Every structure is written in structure tokens, then in C-alpha cells.
Amino acid sequence: MIQGAYPNTRPRRNRFDAFTRRLVAEHRLSVDDLIWPIFVCDGENIRTPVDSMPGIERVSVDLLDAHLAEAVALGVPAIAIFPITPIDKRDETGTESANPDNVMCRATRRIKEIYPELGIIADVALDPYTSHGHDGLIENGYVVNDRSLEVLVRQSVNQAAAGVDIIAPSDMMDGRIDAIRKGLDAAGFVDVRIMSYAAKYASVFYGPFRDALGSGGLLCGDKKTYQMDPANSDEALREVALDIAEGADMVMVKPGMPYLDIIRRVRDTFSMPTFAYQVSGEYAMLAGAIERGWLDRDRTILESLLAFKRAGCNGILTYFAVEAARLLKAQ
Ligand code: PBG
């Protein structure tokens, strides 16, 4: 062998065996990183599959006990509840969002009874409740900002009163974090946290979620006048800065996998607890390929979630949460 003809520095040495790889691993996924989004509906003993999300179901409140048992047993720290509102309870202004007996509130009270330690995150936006499927109120065909804020504040206080721990505004109206923080404080909910969907993009990847909620077919037009343009990155930092200044305790980037660059910039710039949402369309892509045998199930789930940790996330909202927790436990 000719001296100096071969490399002295060999990055492969640190990959030589499993124990060395474990020692040098920079990031690790744990059950503490997982937030499980669930779809909850009215009625009794109902479980209906979401066609575009293989393996995901809408469940009625009475079945939550069994539905959440494994997540709780595995130590998943929190769930995010999404309500299905039947068409006859939807209207132009999303009145049902302020009903103390709506599905979201009933689910929250039930879960707090049976699993008091499980964190509950509630989405705040009007799209589950409006007949037009938009996240705010519409005037002359435009989703108006300031009047929408009043409705969003009422929705937030209603959810906090039912026992929600973390309010997660996903509506992208300007000034909502400030308005909601003040509203919560005035109602005495000073310790209820706000996880803001701070950089939320107008994305095609929400399609299966809208199918799950039944708001996809209702949606008139698109959400480009309030959700962000996928072309933008600096704008995400301005959005996040505003939400932090207005009182957000945690910030979120959404969607997830196509926006890992945004997560990294947000984490580096603000050092805030940073979350990402691996959204329904991402789940559909992966679950669809897994179902066909094109991707290995376990490795796909774990690698896709580890990527979020590497990008700078403290936690991930993922429909794979329970399966990931199961895999992590078995490791
Ligand atoms: C509601 C909301 C949406 C999602 C979370 N909250 C849809 C939307 O903005 O149209 C999407 C989640 C997913 O796709 O999994 N504002």
C-alpha cells in the first residue's frame, strides 16, 4: 500500500458497528416528541374510515376510551382533537364553535375524565364549523380579518372552559395570538398555553384532512389570502416573530416534510419550542406507498419522524404517533 495514497480520515469508521453509531447519533426520536391528531364525531358507537388516509378513522366520543387507551399506555404526551361537524350544524359564521356542548368540548371533558394526564390540544379555526369551509368570516367574498378574530376568541375561551390545555390557532388571521391571549386571560385561563400555527402554508397536502372533516367539498375557492405562499421563507420568520411577540408559547410550521428548511430557520432564529405537523397529505403519501408494499412500514415511519428532529423540532404532530410509539418501545 502506497503511504499517503489512502485517506487518514475515514468517516466510515464511526459507522462501523451498531454501538458506535449509537454513540455518535446526533438526534433521537422519543415518545415525548409525539402528538397524535384524532378526528372525533357525534353519535354513538361510530367508527368510519377516512378513505384518503388508510388506517385512520373518525370515532364518536363514547369510543374515545378505547381509541386512546394504547396511546396513553405507550406514554404519548398529547393529542390534537379535530371535530367533525355535521352539515346541519354548520353556518356562515361558525356558530357551533362557541357551543359549550359541541363535539370538541364533549370530547375534551370525556378525555379529562378518563385520562386526566393526557395533554389536549385544540385547533382554533372556523373551517370545521362554517358552511363555506373557510377559517374566518366572509364578507363580499373575502375572508375578513378583524371580525373573524372576535369569533376565534369566543371559540378559544369555549375550548379552554371545557378543559383544553393548549389552544392551537390554525386560522392565520393577523393579530389572532394577541386577541386570543387577552381573551383567555380575561376569562381566567392564564395558564392555558398557545401553540400557534405560526407559519402555515396554503398547501395541497391538507386535502385528505378536509375529506376527513367533510369540509373539502364545501370549500369555496382557496385559502391563499390568509395561508402563506409556498414560495416564501423570510415571510415565515416575520410571521413567527409576530406570534411570539403576541404571546405564543410554542410555534408550529405546517406542512412538515416539504418545509423542513423553514423549521430549521425558525428554530435557529428564535430558539422557541418548535413543532411541525406531518399533515394528512404527507401521511397519505407514505401510508399509500406502505400499503402497496413500496416502502417498508416501520423504517418509513421512524425515518420520516427523525428528519423532523434533525430539522430542529421539539415535537411532531403525526397520524403515525401511536405506531411510532409502539416501534420506539420495541427498540
Ligand atoms: C384547519 C386545519 C387544517 C389542518 C389543520 N387545521 C386544514 C386547512 O387549513 O385547510 C390540516 C391538517 C392536515 O392536513 O393533516 N384550519
How would you explain this protein's 3D organization?
By secondary structure, the chain is of the alpha/beta class. It has one domain (29-330): Aldolase class I (TIM Barrel). 38% of the residues lie in helices and 18% in strands. The chain has helices at residues 18-24, 64-74, 103-114, 146-162, 176-186, 207-213, 234-245, 260-270, 280-291, 297-311, 321-330, and strands at residues 34-41, 47-49, 57-60, 78-83, 119-124, 137-139, 142-144, 166-169, 193-200, 250-254, 274-278, 315-318. Strand 2 and strand 3 form a beta hairpin. Helix 3 runs parallel beside helix 4 (146-162), helix 4 packs across helix 5 (176-186) and helix 8 (260-270) runs parallel beside helix 10. It is globular. The mean pLDDT is 97. The site of ligand PBG has 11 residues, from helix 6. It catalyses: 2 5-aminolevulinate = porphobilinogen + 2 H2O + H(+). Belongs to the ALAD family.
